[in-house]
Design a protein that fits this description.
single chain, 26% strand, 10 helices, alpha/beta, four-stranded antiparallel sheet, 234 residues, Rossmann fold
């Protein structure tokens, strides 16, 4: 479904991504884990067109995305829920969700997806007229994911969905990620909570200093001694 081949990204003279290779098959949850500054968010931002590659290729469902604008990448079926949630704080919950569907013309489909988002996140339905900036951190995260789902993505990019949330809310968010995946959306998940990420994913990549260090089945990496020592507090 998605393949990154030898992707290199620079921030000025800083070589942020160094020959990244990864692939995602339709229906998977794949997680990308690593320390702060390892290149996780840069990888997602490059896939969604917010950062430009110096070299390499990104192919989604047979189409090269190398020169595609970020807005067109959304229309092609990739949606990005960014680190830090980035909801529109002065808009209502409903208006934030409407922004997620800005590129769509199928009014009946958009209505169905409003119903879908509200069924996944009943709390958003209760607060649909509430100003987004007044929501709790967990509710804002739900809104960020719901907004991303409103573009009807086939591939959902999730950047640190558990960041700053209480443990019970984190558990709820991860259950929702599994539910979204079961309904047919492929997920690429960036997470610092490596243990939770490896438990929900089918495959995983570990990134360090802009390079992929390890890849494999998530369950195998969950029990790998090096991974446990470096990322799981073991």
């Amino acid at each position: 479904m998605l393949q990154l081949k030898d992707v290199n990204v620079y921030y000025g003279v800083i070589h942020a991504l160094k020959g990244i290779n990864l692939h995602i098959e339709e229906g998977e949850i794949v997680t990308l884990i690593g320390a702060n500054g390892a290149g996780k968010s840069t990888t997602l931002r490059t896939i969604s067109g917010l950062e430009k590659m110096k070299s390499g290729s990104i192919v989604f469902e047979g189409k090269d995305l190398g020169k595609t604008k970020a807005s067109d990448i959304v229309s092609q079926g990739i949606s990005h829920s960014p680190e830090g949630r980035r909801v529109f704080p002065q808009m209502t919950v409903l208006e934030n969700l409407e922004m997620g569907a800005f590129a769509r013309k199928d009014k009946a489909g958009v209505k169905r997806d409003f119903d879908r988002v509200f069924s996944i996140f009943p709390r958003l339905l209760e607060r649909k007229q509430q100003i987004a900036g007044t929501l709790s951190g967990g509710e804002q995260q739900m809104l960020a994911i719901g907004r991303a789902l409103m573009s009807k993505p086939r591939l959902l990019l999730l950047d640190e969905p558990s960041m700053g949330l209480a443990p019970l809310v984190v558990k709820e968010i991860f259950n929702i990620i599994k539910e979204i995946n079961k309904e047919g959306t492929t997920v690429l998940l960036v997470e610092q909570n490596a243990s939770m990420a490896l438990k929900v994913a089918s495959r995983a990549y570990i990134i360090a200093n802009g390079e992929i260090e390890l890849e494999g089945r998530a369950q195998d990496l969950l029990h790998d001694e090096k991974v446990k020592k470096a990322y799981l507090g073991g």
